[in-house]
Amino acid sequence: MEFTWLSRWQPQLLALLRIVTALLFLQHALIKLFGFPPGGKPGLQQVGTLLWSAGVIEFVTGLLVLMGLWTRLAAFVAAGEMAVGYWMIHGQQSLYPAVNMGEAAVLFCFVFLYLAAVGPGAWSVDGARFRASMPR
Question: Domains of the chain: which residue ranges?
Answer without folding.
Answer: 10-124
